[in-house]
Amino acid sequence: MKLRPVLLVLLILCGFYYITTRMMPAGALAGLIQKNLTPAVQTGPIGNFSITEANAAPAFDTEEQQNIGVYKRVLPSVVNITSTELVYDFFYRAVPQQGQGSGFILDKQGHILTNNHVVDNAQDVEVTLWNKKKYKASVIDVDKNHDIALLQIHDAPNLEPATLADSTNLLVGQRVYAIGNPFGFSGTMTRGMISAIRSIEMPSGNKIEDAIQTDASINPGNSGGPLLNSRGDVIGITTLIATNPNTNVDQSAGIGFAIPISTVKVVLDDFERYGRARRPSLDIVSFPIVPDEAEQIGLPSVYGVLIERVLPGGASERAGLRGGTQQAYKNNQPVLLGGDLIVGFDGQEITNPRDLTIAMNAHHSGDTIELTIYRGQQRMKVKVTLSDAKQVIG
User: Fold this and answer.
1) Any domain includes 186
2) Which of 77, 83, 217, 223 is catalytic?
3) Residue 196's CB: how many other CB atoms inside 10 A?
4) How many domains does the chain have?
5) Active-site residue among 83, 102, 117, 355?
6) 269 catalytically annotated
7) Co-location of 337 and 238 in the same domain
C-alpha cells in the first residue's frame, strides 16, 4: 500500500514527459509560456491592435553590467569645459568665440586635466560638473609639447577624483571606454579597444610616443576627456582623431588617439617640482641608421642614432660627445657623418629615435644617465646630465 502513491507519481511524470516530448509540436511549450506575458489592446483611429509586453525587465548580462559599472563609477569625475576666446571679425570688432572640450578631476582640491588645445588662448574657461553645477576655472600650467593643461576650480564640494592607471604595459585588443562631451552631448560614453600603440605627430608638429590608438568613437568635444580601461581607471587623455583627407568633415573615422597617462604623470611631476614642464634633452641633432646605410658608412652597428651635431653649450657637448665632420647627403638633404653612434641608454638598447625618446621621457632634466656609444669602432660608455629643453611655443 505504501508503494502505491510513489508509483502513481512516477506514472504521472512519465506521462507528462511522453506528451511534451513526443506528442507536442516544437514551440508549443514556448507558446504556453508566452501566454504568461501581458497582452494589451490599443484602440485608435486606425483600428484595434494588440501588443505583448514583458512583465519585468530582463537581467543585464555580464558585459552590460561591466559597461554600466564603468559609467557609474567614472561619470562624476568627468567634466565639460567651455572656453571663450575673443577673435576679430572683418571690421576688427572683438567677437567671443566658444570652444567645447572635456576633462577629468584629478584631486579634491579641484585640479582638472585636459588638453592644452581645449583652453589655448582662452580668456575665460568654465567647467561644468556631472551634476550641472558650473565653476570658473583658472589655467594653472600647460605643456604645449604634450598638449596637456592643468586647470583648477575652487569651492566645489564633494569632488570625485579619477583613478590613474599605469599605461606602460597596455596591449592591443584591450577593451577601452571614452567618456566626454562630443558635439556638446555631455556624459556620453563610447566603447572600443586598443587598436595600436604608436608614435603620432600632433598638429603642432610635436610627437607623442606610445600614443594609444583606439576605435572607440571620439569626436570634437571628447578632447581632454579620459580614456579608461575595463576597471574604469584612466589610461590616457583623448586628444586627436584621424579624419578622411578627402573630406572636410571633422568627425570620428574609427581612429582616435590618446596621450598615455604615464607620459601625463611625468608632466604633472614637473608641474609639482618646478612649476612648469621640463623636457629632458641631449641637445643633439641626429638621424637614425638602417642596416644598408650602416654598411655603406662602415659603422660597427647596424642600428642606432647617429649624432650629426652637438649643440653648443648643451648636455652632450659638456659630456664630451662628438658630432659629424664629413659632408654627405641623405634623401637629397645634407648630413654630417663621423659622429658618435648612440646604441644604448642606461642599459636599454637604442635602435631608433623612438627608442631614444621613450627612454628620455622616463627621466627629468637634471638626471644623469649613461649612454652607450660607438666612436669609430670603439664601444664606450659616457655619463650625460640631461638638460632642460626649451618649451615649444605655438
Assistant:
1) yes
2) 223
3) 13
4) 3
5) 117
6) no
7) no
Catalytic residue status for 340: no
Give exposure, 360-370, as e/b (b: 16+ Cβ within 10 Å).
bbbebbeeebe
Task: Based on the fold, state whether residues 270 and 304 are members of the same structural domain.
Answer: no
Query: Domain span at residue 138?
Result: 75-152
* 124-167: pLDDT as tens digits: 999 999 999 999 999 999 988 889 999 999 999 999 999 999 88
What 3-state class would DSSP assign to 196? Answer: strand
Tell the residue number behind the cell numbers 608641474, with chain if given.
271
Exactly one of 143, 147, 210, 233 is catalytic; which is it?
Answer: 147
Domain boundary, last residue among 274, 290, 306: 274
Please indicate, yes or no, whether residues 198 and 287 belong to a single structural domain of this protein.
no
Query: Beta-strand (E) ranges in 106-255?
Result: 111-114, 124-128, 134-136, 138-143, 148-152, 175-180, 188-201, 207-214, 226-228, 234-241
User: Does 328 map to a domain?
Assistant: yes
What is the C-alpha separation between 376 and 299, in angstroms, rounded? 7
Residues 262 and 294 in one domain: no
How far is Cα 130 from Cα 188, in angstroms, rounded to an integer? 11
Q: What is the pLDDT of residues 86-100, one digit of tens each?
A: 665 555 555 567 788
pLDDT surpasses 90 at 330: no
| Same structural domain, 262 and 341 | no
CA–CA separation, 127 vs 112, rounded Å?
9
pTM higher than 0.70, yes or no? no
Active site (annotated) includes residue 141 = no
Confidence of residue 391 (pLDDT cuts 50, 70, 90): very low
Enumerate the H helices of 3-46 as residue ranges. 3-18, 28-34
Long-range contacts made by residues 120-126, C-beta under 8 angstroms, separation at least 24? Answer: 120/144, 120/149, 121/85, 122/83, 122/84, 122/85, 123/84, 123/85, 123/86, 124/83, 124/84, 125/81, 125/82, 125/83, 125/84, 125/151, 126/81, 126/82, 126/83, 126/84
pLDDT exceeds cutoff 70 at 39: no
pLDDT(203) > 80: no
Say whether both 289 and 385 belong to one domain.
Answer: yes
pLDDT, position 193: 96
Q: Is the pLDDT of residue 74 over 80?
A: yes
Q: Phi and psi dihedrals of 97, rounded to 5? A: -130, 125
Q: What percent of the chain stands above pLDDT 90? A: 45
